[in-house]
Write a structure and sequence with these properties.
Elements: E1 2-7, H1 22-30, E2 40-43, E3 47-49, H2 55-62, E4 71-73, E5 103-107, H3 109-120, H4 125-128, E6 131-135, E7 142-144, E8 147-153, E9 163-169, E10 172-177, H5 185-193, E11 198-204, H6 220-233, E12 241-245, H7 255-262, E13 267-269, E14 275-277
Parallel strand pairs: 3-4, 4-5, 5-6, 10-11, 11-12, 12-13
Antiparallel strand pairs: 1-2, 1-14, 2-3, 7-8, 8-9, 9-10
């Protein structure tokens, strides 16, 4: 399984859209790995985790055939994770010779409602019929060909059943915790009972090196605590790749400094375009 990090920022991007703070000025000056777009992960070539407004740019920057994507896993309805209007153009006259005719969007109730409402005015019937929108609940196992998908409850927004995902292909699993606060050990225990064994985990690291504690996001020290809990529950082992992503411009550390902080804990700091094989 290959994971390609198309974007690694929180909602505002790095540098942030309208910001001129010292952190954003530094990111503009450094460029390279310090430029972060909204978080998105490509799994192999056929599955996307989240669909932010930066998706089109991701396809251009990283050579992604978006028409080859068969499954789109959406975590929640915030615009940096779900931008359904783009799907209006998944067919004529905007697109021809698609690699895959059908795409499935997998999501919670609120995203499904938003997806249908936000595309209703402009989408053509012949385009809509090739997009399926599947509503899922936490711990509802989905089998899609050689891929297993298990949505898990995220700790993010009080009025929405936000999701993170465990995906497995060919006996290799990845746990994607891109936009969530700390999770209870019972979540990981249940994932273990369902067969979840992760060779890689991506962690929300919105708060940089800080410990955030209970809430909507995490920092590096929260990620370390979660990794210890995952190890205790048997979902990961000592060889599992641990990756920080979803970083905010409010993080006072640039990429290099953040990696120095993460090294003692065995974490890798993701950057836009990074690819790993597990």
């Amino acid at each position: 399984m290959k994971l390609k990090f198309l974007g690694t920022a929180a909602a505002e991007g790095v540098p942030a859209v309208f910001c001129n703070c010292d952190n954003c000025k530094r990111a503009r000056l450094l460029g390279g790995k310090d430029i972060r777009t909204r978080s998105q992960i490509l799994i192999d070539a056929d599955t996307l985790f989240d669909f932010p407004m930066d998706t089109y740019m991701h396809a251009l920057m990283h050579g992604v055939d978006l028409s080859a994507v068969k499954h789109v896993l959406i975590s929640h309805s915030h615009m940096d994770h779900c931008y359904p209007q783009e799907f209006i153009m998944r067919g004529g006259p905007f697109a021809h010779e698609l690699t895959e005719k059908i795409v499935e969007v997998i999501c919670n109730d609120k995203v499904r409602e938003m997806f249908l409402a936000d595309t209703a005015r402009e989408i053509r019937p012949e385009v809509r019929e090739n997009i399926s929108v599947t509503r899922v609940r936490p711990f509802e196992r989905l089998n899609r060909g050689d891929m297993t998908i298990i949505p898990l409850p995220a700790a993010h927004t009080a009025n929405e059943e936000c999701l993170v995902y465990y995906v497995e292909r060919g006996g290799v699993g990845a746990l994607l915790l891109n936009d969530t606060g700390v999770l209870d050990g019972d979540v990981y225990a249940r994932l273990y009972d369902m067969g979840g064994r992760a060779k890689a985990v991506t962690f929300d690291c919105t708060y940089g090196v800080k410990r955030h504690g209970p809430g909507r996001h995490m920092g590096l020290l929260d990620d370390v605590d979660q990794a210890e809990l995952l190890l205790k529950k048997g979902v990961i082992d000592s060889r599992t790749k641990l990756i920080c992503t979803h970083l905010s411009h409010n993080n006072a550390h640039d990429y290099a400094a953040m990696q120095v902080e993460a090294d003692p804990f065995g974490f890798t700091v993701a950057y836009d375009g990074m690819e790993i094989t597990i």
